[in-house]
């Protein structure tokens, strides 16, 4: 009888060790290992126009209002940032008017496309001569999703998610909601798509709240730090970042976040990576209070940023 018990028991231990090892490798790949792909030496434009290896970084903020207007050497018309309180959360609303979509750009951590390559939003912003930057969709955490950056296609793999719609910016600077798989990535490039992010959900469509927001279940009802981008007119955009996970700012649900964009006049709005990643950087400093681990104000390393280029000298 003891032999009949002992053999299955040893077999069970072996199976347990095997699956524990596999799980460890998967988690290591998702959270630790860097897998470099393409090094970006020069960012191409599709139209003309008039790091640190640590995980977190301490920051300090103090100002409450920020404005920037164009000079003869800048490529944007105006940027104005208002800091407001909305539904118990501190929100940072950047109103951006551009003269050309080519100056709304994206950058990869360490100028490299690949899995789990991270850098601070502030570092990427400084290295790319930005005047304003927010974190992007953290594409490097996932192996699927559409990735088009500055007119170059890097990935075209449809996600398995409740909402598989991506956000595009076309050659005219218009935001477009795109169902992944309905066109190939190359077809999008051929018709002049400049940027594409795959995170979501869609927040506002045709100036109305998107039904997809209420379908996110617990994600939708949880108050968290948020990041989103919207269009309110021709070459006229909003970047909104929400602080959360603190006694001062509770964060917003996705429904509240959608309503905020609608209240600010968004025609189309899309949710980007929030939580501990939520960061907005302006003119040399992080101006919000990102909470990476809930224990303090820290900047978190991320895969990518969305930014407005600064002085062209």
> Tell me, what's the shape?
globular
Elements, N to C (H/E):
HEEEEEEEEHEEEEEHEEEHEEHEEEEE
What proportion of the residues is helical, as a percent range?
10-25%
Over all CA atoms, what is the radius of gyration?
21 Å
Beta-strand proportion:
35-45%
What is the number of strand segments?
Answer: 23
> What is the tally of helical segments?
5
Q: What would you call the structural class?
A: alpha+beta
Main sheet: strands, sense, barrel: 8 strands, antiparallel
Biggest sheet: strand arrangement:
3-4-5-18-17-19-15-16
Number of domains: 2
Uncertain parts: 1-15, 17-33, 39-56
Could you explain how this protein is built, in words?
The chain is an alpha+beta fold and 313 residues long. The protein is built from five helices and 23 strands. The chain has helices spanning 2-31, 121-127, 185-190, 218-221, 254-263; strands at 35-39, 56-58, 65-69, 76-86, 89-98, 104-108, 112-115, 119-120, 130-135, 145-149, 152-157, 165-169, 175-179, 195-197, 202-205, 208-209, 226-233, 236-242, 268-272, 280-282, 285-286, 298-302, 304-309. It has an eight-stranded antiparallel β-sheet with strand order 3-4-5-18-17-19-15-16, with helices on one face.
How would you summarize the topology of this molecule?
Blueprint: H1 2-31, E1 35-39, E2 56-58, E3 65-69, E4 76-86, E5 89-98, E6 104-108, E7 112-115, E8 119-120, H2 121-127, E9 130-135, E10 145-149, E11 152-157, E12 165-169, E13 175-179, H3 185-190, E14 195-197, E15 202-205, E16 208-209, H4 218-221, E17 226-233, E18 236-242, H5 254-263, E19 268-272, E20 280-282, E21 285-286, E22 298-302, E23 304-309
Antiparallel strand pairs: 1-7, 2-22, 3-4, 4-5, 5-18, 6-23, 8-22, 9-20, 9-23, 10-11, 12-13, 12-14, 15-16, 15-19, 17-18, 17-19, 20-21
């Amino acid at each position: 009888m003891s032999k009949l018990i002992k053999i299955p028991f040893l077999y069970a231990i072996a199976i347990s060790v095997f699956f524990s090892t596999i799980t460890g490798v998967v988690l290591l790949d998702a959270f630790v290992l860097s897998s470099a792909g393409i090094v970006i030496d020069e960012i191409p434009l599709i139209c003309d126009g008039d790091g640190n290896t640590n995980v977190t970084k301490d920051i300090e903020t103090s100002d409450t209002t920020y404005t920037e207007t164009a000079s003869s050497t800048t490529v944007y018309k105006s940027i104005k940032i208002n800091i407001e309180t909305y539904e118990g959360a501190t929100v940072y609303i950047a109103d951006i008017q551009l003269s050309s979509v080519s100056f709304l750009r994206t950058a990869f951590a360490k100028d490299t496309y690949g899995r789990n390559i991270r850098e601070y939003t502030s570092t990427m912003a400084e290295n790319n001569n930005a005047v304003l930057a927010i974190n992007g969709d953290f594409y490097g955490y996932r192996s699927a999703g559409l990735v088009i950056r500055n007119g170059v296609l890097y990935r075209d793999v449809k996600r398995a998610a409740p909402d598989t719609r991506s956000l595009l910016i076309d050659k005219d600077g218009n935001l477009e909601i795109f169902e992944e798989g309905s066109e190939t990535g190359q077809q999008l490039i051929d018709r002049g798509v400049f940027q594409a992010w795959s995170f979501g959900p869609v927040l506002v469509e045709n100036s109305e709240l998107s039904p997809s927001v209420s379908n996110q279940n617990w994600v939708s009802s949880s108050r968290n730090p948020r990041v989103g981008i919207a269009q309110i007119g021709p070459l006229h955009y909003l970047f909104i970042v929400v602080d959360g996970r603190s006694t001062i700012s509770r964060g917003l649900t996705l429904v509240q976040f959608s309503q905020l964009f609608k209240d600010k006049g968004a025609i189309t709005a899309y949710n980007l990576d929030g939580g501990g990643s939520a960061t907005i950087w302006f003119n040399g400093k992080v101006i919000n209070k990102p909470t990476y681990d809930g224990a303090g104000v820290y900047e978190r390393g991320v895969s990518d940023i969305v930014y407005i280029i600064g002085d062209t000298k």
